[in-house]
User: What shape does this take?
Amino acid sequence: MIRLIHSGDWHIGRFNGPEKDGKNARFLDICDCLDALVKGAQESRPVITVVAGDVFHAARTWSDRGLEEVETAIRYIRELEHICPVVVMRGTPNHDGENHFEMLKTAFEGDDNVHIVTNPGVWTYHSYGGKKVQIACLPGFDRGYYRAQHPGLSKEEENEVFTVSYTHLRA
Assistant: This one.
């Protein structure tokens, strides 16, 4: 049996709402949830952690805010890395901006235990105990782009066109 943690939709960022000690209360709640995720990982000792996208709440942020959000993501990914290897997949572009993920790639460059995935594929990773784990990743894409290229399609037609287009784009 292989034990893994599958997480996603961290939505690290600022939300409209109250502040607590000068910090956005929702941001603090997110950090509390991520603390609980790390604690759960420490207790369950998974062989790998997969973060399936939407790490950030907004793709476009001002520099100070964006840096704080990326630093927060790096901190939690590093905490998880102390427990097991971590695969972080880019989510939808309206949340996980290209610049955010370029910063994550730079932060973890040369680190064989953290894998930042921005393209679809199937990869084999190794746990700290040497177990092989295959993970298929299909990072998010911008539906608005495809809708502008193919207006007026039904949902079923959209899914078919998007799948074919996305597969050809990433091949």
